[in-house]
Every structure is written in structure tokens, then in C-alpha cells.
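Reopening this one. Same input as before:
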Amino acid sequence: MKKRTLRERISYWIDCMMSKGPIAMCVLLFAITFAIVIVIGVIASFASDEGGILYQVWLSLMQTLDAGNLSGVATDNIAYLVLMFLATLCGLFLTSVLIGVIATGVEDKLSELRKGTSVVQEDNHTIIIGFDNNVYAILQELIEANSNKKNACIVILGEQPKEEIEDAISSHIPDTVTTRIICRSGNLHEAYALERCSVETCKSVIVNVHDDAETVKVLLALATYIKNKELTNPNLRFIVSLQDNQYVEAANIAGEGRAAIVYAKDAIARIISNTCRQHGLSQVLTELFNFTGNELYFEKVSELAGKSFKEATMSFSNAIVVGLQTAGQVKLNPPMDTVIGKDDEIVLLELDDGAYKYHPVKMVDESKICNDASVSATANDHLIVLGSNEKLSTILAEYDKYVETGTHVVIVDDDLDETKLDTYDNLDITVCTKPVTRELLCEFINKDANNILLLNDDSQDPETSDSQTLLRLILLRDIADNAGLDFSITTEMRSVDNQRLASQARVDDFVIGSNFASLIMAQISENPKMLPLIDDLLDESGSEMYMKPVANYVPLGVPVDSYMLTESVARKGEIYLGYRQNDNTKSDVIVNPQKDETIVFGEHDQIVVIAEN
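Same output, byte for byte:
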């Protein structure tokens, strides 16, 4: 065995001391300083007759700490002068090193703090795991939801540097109102990163990861982390969005019962399909799923105990009853004769939590109620689809369920693989694999083309695919203006900013896939009871939202109010949400109007209802 030299041992010892950080280095420097002071003080006591050893040690210390004291040393004792000079040189060297060590240590600590390595000291906060362009929609919704709360907090964990995340958020959301946003950086699956976010004290966790396998991995890390932690919120939920149903079972297992799953791709595909047939529906969905304007709340109204659900629908002047929670089960549009128990909660569409105005059951003039559905909904028989993505098959399958046999659908996309299209009972599909040009569009668009769907290219980045969609929108509107054609356009876009630009192209409906998923996740994070309600609303079974001719419910050309519409709709087992008055210009859907305001409806006007068919 090779014998280590003294130099090697000292070098290794110094390396070990330096690896312990600036505090260990400071201690070492102080020890060296005092050793030098004592040695020089003892030797100086022999070279000078003034004072004893302690006095000379004290003078040596002062000489080491302050080089200016050297001028006061007597020059008649050369040996003593040399000793004090050595003490001064050692002091200058050690002090310089000490200042450098302290400065480096402080700089390293500040850099560490800037990286966000400390543990968040917050309670009842919301955590978002994963940082990308979709996070801004979630943040805006949560900020709006927290606007009536003081000192609300959102913690974001991303793999990017903390400074980069903070700069990106501040550029997109300059005003966070009453909400503080804290950013942390680290591996999304590691316990140290989850600990920095203080998962055990949070209100909910939103997993903003859009790869399903990665989402399951994050769920597993979260469930593992909290196993040995004392939760301040026993009902802590992990809200995730999955694109493929094959990962649902794995996500439920990994989340150990705490995962609230949003089936994003299927849900968005159903929304797009329904919006193609019923223009204006996306406005209603956005109203329901965001925290601006009317929102869904669970309210316990003691006056409704013992009354039927139908009576409840006629008991609010500025709110709409859409569902009921009884015995822990949430039901959208329950049977109208359902009796409300004293412990039950109703689901209200209202402007804010507790903003409803209750009154005894309102009676209406039954002579103005239409009992027969004599007018059929306007059919969009000719659909042109420009572009394709993974949702196309689901959109067509959903569309097929609601249209008549022989409905013509044209799909224009030069990258479409026709073999991947399913067969449908009611759709007559024509596929064109040529590039989308003005000449090609003029060939397919004619007076029979009453609806066009623009699908986003998921294989490209959001900005590139949205730019392509914007160009096609401009082209379509120019063709319509030159040819005097009137058709509606439903557009899927991935950026809210690009949607605002596209509004100049007079688009009837926007369905922003990632935005809708973000809205839903934000809703569930604030109130987990919303999950079964949203599932029921977006699921193909049960109740859904429809735009129906107003003539099937109340007479046309005479003043009626929303109480009359609510009563007429309820008699058909449906729930009235609002109306749309259609004229030659684009019109918006009015959701949750004041029920005592009168409206005169025309032949083409529609109402929005929640119904089973």
C-alpha cells in the first residue's frame, strides 16, 4: 500500500474542508488567523519588554486586523518590527481571502434563492405541475376565480429555469390581481421538487403535462410523495387531462383514487361536432366553463326543501337551476318531479357565488306555452372539413349520430390517409388529397355548403398551425364576399391570441381545444364536485346542450319572458339556459338572462337547452 505524503494529506484535507462550503472555509480561515496571531504574539513577547504574552497577543491581533497600526510600531526594535510586519502581511492575505469566500458564499446563496430551491411556506394553494403555453389559460381562470379572495397563491413547477418561467408569465399576465404566483424549478417526478411546492398543504394539483405516459408518471410520483405526509386537505385531488383512453386505468391506479381525469380529446371532439351543427354553442360552453360572467355553483337553499326540481327552476329571477346533488351524487337535469331534500344542494348558473335571488314559485300564463315540437332544428347537411388531426374520426362519429342519412361531408387535406377513416351510417364522405388552394375551395364551396370546419394541424407547433388556419380563414371570407355566399365557419385554434386576430374574419364559432381543457381543469381544481357534472354534460349519453327553435316553446311575434320559456322547456323535461336571436348579422348567445325581461322572438331564433335528445 502506497504511503501518503504529508503534502498529499494536507491537500486532501483542504479539499474536504472547501467542499463543505463557505462556512467551513470561514472557520478554517479564523482558525489559521488566530494560530498566526498567537504564534507571533508569543514570539513578540520575547522580542519586546513591553507587557506580557497576552498583551503581545492582543497587539498581534490588532496588527493583523488593521494594517494601519504598523505605523505606530517603534522602529528601534528591528526584530519586533519584522514580527508586526509579518502579522500585517498575514492579516492582509487572510482578510482578502475571507472577503472573497464570504462574497462567493453570498452570491451562491442568492443564485440558489433565484433558482427557487426553498420550500414554499403556503397553505391552501393551487399547484400547477408542468409549464408550457397552455398554462396561461389555466392561470387566467384561477386568477379570476381568486379575485374575491385575499392573498391567494398559485405555485408552478416547471423544468425550465425559474427566471425563465417568471419572465414568460409576467409578459403574458402582467396583472395577477389578488393572486401571488410562485415558481419552482425541478424534475417533475422527483420528491425534492414536489417538496419545494409543499404538496401536502395545497388545495389541489393540476398536472399540465400533455403526454399521457408522462402524466401517469407524475401521478405516481405525487401519490408516492404524499404517502408519508400529513395532508391538510384530506380530499386533495390531482386534476389531469388525458388524450388516449387506454391510459385511464393506469392513471386511476397511479393516482390511488385521487385523480380527477378529463378526457380531453374525446370531449373536445364532441364539442367541435356539436358546434358544427349548432352555431353559437361554443359561446355557451365557454360561459359555463370559465370564471368570467356566469358560472356554476353548488348552493344549499333551505326554502327549496320538499319542493320538486321543476318548482326550483321557477324560483330564481337571476339564476338557472341545472342540476342537483343528493346523497353525494351529482345529477345534471334530473327528472322534474324529483323532490329536493333538506340536505341537498342545487347546481346554479349565476354571476357569482351566492348572487342568486330566490322567490316563491312563479306562475305563468299557460296559454302562451307551445306543447308540440312542430318546427325541426335547422340542419347543416353539407359540411366541408379543411385539414385533419387525431380528433377527425371522433368528430365524424359524433356528427353521424345527429344528421340524416345521405349527409354530404367533404374532407380536404393533402396528408389524409383515407384508410384510417371509419364507415358511417349517415355520412356520404368525399376525400380530396390535394393541397388547399383558392381554386380548389371555389370548386367545392357553393350555395349548398352551409358549414365549414377548419381543423388545426396537431403535428405542427401552435403558432405555425394557427397561422395556416388564419390564412385559410381570410381566403374563405374573401370567396364568400365575392361570390355572395353565406356559410358558417367553425374553427379550431390552439392560441387565444390568434383567436382574437381571427375574429376579424367574422368567424361564427371558435373551439380552442387546449383552452377548453384548461378551463375544465381550472373548474375542477376549484371545486372537485364539478367533475361528474362536466362529465355528464360532455358525455354522449345523458343530457347535453342543444340549440332548438324557439317556436317549439312559445309563440312568435309576441312579448314573452324567460319565466315562460323556463316553464315551457321544463314541461318537456329540459332546462332553459338562454337564447339566440338570429338576423343577417352575427349574433351572440345570451346566457342566463333576467327572467322578467320580455323578448319578441322571430322565426329563425333559437333557445339553448339542456336535454337528453
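So the earlier flakiness isn't reproducible anymore. For the record, The first strand starts at residue 126 and ends at 129.
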